Amino acid sequence: MTYKKYIVGLTGGIASGKTTVANLFAENGIELVDADVIAREVVEPDSKGLKAITEHFGTEILLPNGELDRAALRSQVFDNPQQRLWLNNLLHPMIRQTMLEQVNASTSAYVIMVVPLLFENHLNSLVTTTLVVDISPELQISRTMQRDGVSKQQVEHILASQMSRGQRLDKADHIIDNQGDINLLRKQVAHLHQLFLQQAAELSIKANN
Predict the structure, then answer these.
(1) pLDDT 10s digits, 32-55
(2) According to the annotation, is 17 in a ligand binding site?
(3) Is 129 assigned to a binding site?
(4) Residue 136 among known ligand-binding residues
(5) 19 annotated to a ligand binding site
(6) Of the candidates 6, 41, 146, 193, which lies 20 to 30 Å from 157 by C-alpha distance?
(7) What phi and psi, each to the nearest 5 degrees, are found at residue 167?
């Protein structure tokens, strides 16, 4: 019997703790579909994605071992909106298609789809409900500087390119506050897990009647 999957779109700004939250849901047996992981898979050696990128930009965007040189590709598209648009038009449909295939293949009660740019790329249209992991911009800056070894200015530049905290929270169906300790985080995840289980069961019953 088929029914519409209950999909939770998990998002948040840089260094908000999306992976930590996703992994807590995974500990409850919930399958994850991660856009960042898929984005790397669609440009692996011998993939259609990498073949198309190489044909378009030339072999200078390849590392000696045949893998994609991400830094070289970034420099090609960074200040070139047309090239960036070309790249997005190539990769976004591939990523979207693979995400949906993984969702359809999942067997857990509901699925967590982890998408950093869920709202920016309008991928919230694919999910049943949205969950935003929220921290203050100050924490985002300090965590990113610590994690990635980048300057405050670089982090502020990234923040400026993403949707604002206010806009993201306005669009969220559910919000997890990740500014406290891990125990507080676990409590919030446990509460939402029960809610999503209940709503997924209701969706399943409705779809099968």
Answers:
(1) 999 999 999 999 999 999 999 999
(2) yes
(3) no
(4) no
(5) yes
(6) 41
(7) -65, -45
Q: Could you tell me which of 173, 38, 33 has the C-alpha nearest to residue 111?
A: 33
CATH number of 1-30+110-201: 3.40.50.300
Residue 15 assigned as binding residue: yes
Q: How far is CA 173 from CA 81, 124, 189, in A?
A: 32, 11, 14
Q: Closest Cα to residue 95, out of 56, 72, 133, 126?
A: 126
Retrieve residue 156's tokens.
Answer: 């502020």
Backbone angles phi, psi at 31, to 5 degrees: -80, 145
SS3 content of the chain, % helix, strand, coil (to 5): 60, 10, 30
- How many helices (H) and strands (E) are present in the chain, helices listed first? 9, 5
Cα 51-64-60 angle, rounded to 5 deg: 55
Locus of tokens 């509460």: 191
CATH 3.40.50.300 domain range(s) in the chain: 1-30+110-201
To the question of whether residue 180 is assigned a binding role by annotation, the answer is: no
Answer yes or no: are the C-beta atoms of 9 and 131 closer than 8 Å.
yes
